[in-house]
Every structure is written in structure tokens, then in C-alpha cells.
Design a protein that fits this description.
The protein is α/β, with parallel strands linked by helices. 44% of the residues lie in helices and 13% in strands. It is built from ten helices and seven strands. Strand 1 and strand 2 form a beta hairpin.
């Protein structure tokens, strides 16, 4: 067998079994995004977030999650958290703002964003995180499952940890519009067609029960909506007469057919642009 042939065989074997990726440099950033093909943790130099003080109307959820996060960052027992409820009410913003707040207090904490479609790779991610001395919030935004979706089984690796247990230095925070992570009509459909209705969807519905904290987010009142806008104006130096601000903000939410933190921010962006203020 010639040297050229051996070289081609060796190259083919390298493609089939590539060399392992080097260990991530967790000192490169405080936030990372998990990607696959190939597996890697990409440092995030600047996280898109708002200050914790600007999140209005979520005081109970804020205080509970902040205390839980501080406990975890200090090496104390803490719970995985599911933030569920109305769209645009600051669920993902709260997670990122609390991470920034805890970091500012001098506590060592990093955050890793995991996309729902990458859940099947979570075991490989946990191996990387388990080998680090750092402490990690694993953040999965907009989490939900359809009736034929098997990704929820991968999520159990984080919540239950299998035979090894969940890494002591990893905690999961997830956001969802659904309390039980799957549509109610699909729950009822499986229950009605199953031989044992009481057990038909127990595996999927009980997934949310594995979160130690359930934090509900509900639609805001008009006063809370206006307070959100006033808070943005004060933070960014936008000055507008109160009567004009109130009238335009109410008209804006009426055209959207909804009130939420997201709608408040969208109105504020429009207002700031009309006032010539850069954000």
C-alpha cells in the first residue's frame, strides 16, 4: 500500500472522527450562545437587555427570581425556574436583567443561551459546563412543544440529570407562553383518545412540574403600561408633556389591541425618534 493511499485513508478517518474541540474559554465573556455543527460556545460580548429597574409590574416574579439566582451564585441550593404567561411582559428581559444585576453585585455567574431546536444536544453541553469551576444559568427562551415533538425528553436531562444528576453548577431558566409547555387542545385530544386518559399526557404535562419555581406573568393594567413608558422616558432623557404622553400612549395601545411591556417599548421608540433622541 502506497504512502499516498495511507494518507487518503487517514484523511477519511479524520473526517469521520474529527479531533475533539478544545475546552471553551469561559473567561472570554459572561454570556455565551450554544451552537451545534460543530458544537461550540460562542462568547457574547454585549447582551441585549434592559436595566432591572425599568421592568414594571413584575415585582413578585422579580424578587423571587433574584433571590433564587443570588442563592445559586453563592453556591447555595436553588430551583430551576419556568417563567410563563402573557407575551411581551418581560419574561426573557427579566432573566437577562437579573443576570446583569447579580454580576454587578460581584457574584460569579455566567449565562448560556440554548435554543429549543438544540435541546437534543444538551447532554454534550452539560459535559462542557460540568467541567468548569464557573456557575451557569442555562437560558431557554420561548420554550414549548407540540404533540409530536420529542425534544421535551432532552429537556429532562437538565431538569432531572439522569444517572449523573444535574451538574451542581448549572441551573435552568426557561420562558414560555404556556404553563404546561404544550397547547391545551393537544392535551385534551390525547386525553380523549387514549386508553388510559389519566395517564395519556402525564409525561409531557409533568415536565413543567419539574421546575421548582413557576412565575406567572399576566397582562398589565393601563396604569402599569403608562408607568413603563414614563420609566423609559426618565431613563433616556425624553421629555414630553404628561397629557400628550398619556393620550398618544393610549392611542398607540388601542391600535395594537393590547397592552404589554413590549408595546410600551415600541411606543417609546417611536416617541424617542419623533423627539430626536438616540437610544
Amino acid at each position: 500500500m502506497t504512502t499516498d493511499t495511507l494518507s487518503r485513508i487517514a484523511a477519511a478517518l479524520e473526517r469521520l472522527a474529527p479531533a475533539p474541540q478544545p475546552a471553551p474559554d469561559f473567561t472570554a465573556a459572561d454570556a455565551f450562545a450554544w451552537h451545534t455543527d460543530p458544537d461550540r460556545l460562542e462568547p457574547v460580548a454585549r447582551v441585549a437587555r434592559v436595566d432591572l429597574s425599568l421592568l414594571i409590574g413584575v415585582n413578585r416574579a422579580r424578587d423571587t427570581l433574584l433571590e433564587n439566582t443570588r442563592h445559586f451564585a453563592r453556591g447555595l441550593p436553588a430551583n430551576n425556574a419556568l417563567l410563563w404567561g402573557a407575551r411581551g411582559m418581560g419574561k426573557s428581559s427579566l432573566v437577562k436583567a437579573i443576570h446583569a444585576t447579580v454580576r454587578a453585585e460581584g457574584l460569579p455567574l455566567k449565562i448560556v443561551e440554548l435554543a429549543r431546536e438544540d435541546l437534543p444536544s444538551v447532554q454534550r453541553l452539560l459535559v462542557l459546563l460540568r467541567g468548569s469551576d464557573a456557575r451557569f444559568i442555562l437560558f431557554c427562551d420561548d420554550l414549548s412543544f407540540s404533540h409530536d415533538d420529542q425534544h421535551y425528553k432532552s429537556l429532562k436531562a437538565v431538569l432531572d440529570g439522569g444517572i449523573e444528576g444535574r451538574p451542581e453548577n448549572v441551573l435552568l431558566y426557561a420562558t414560555s407562553n404556556r404553563r404546561h409547555l404544550m397547547p391545551r387542545d393537544m392535551i385534551e385530544n390525547e386525553r380523549s383518545t387514549a386508553i388510559s386518559p389519566s395517564e395519556a399526557v402525564e409525561e409531557k404535562v409533568s415536565l413543567s412540574d419539574r421546575f421548582g419555581l413557576w412565575l406567572g406573568f399576566h397582562p398589565c393594567s393601563q396604569d402599569e403600561y403608562l408607568d413603563m413608558i414614563r420609566g423609559y422616558c426618565a431613563a433616556y432623557g425624553v421629555t414630553t408633556p404628561e397629557d400628550r404622553l398619556r393620550a398618544e400612549a393610549i392611542e398607540w395601545q388601542a391600535t395594537r389591541g393590547a397592552r404589554s411591556g413590549r408595546v410600551a417599548w415600541q411606543f417609546f421608540c417611536d416617541l424617542a425618534a419623533r423627539e430626536g433622541v438616540r437610544l
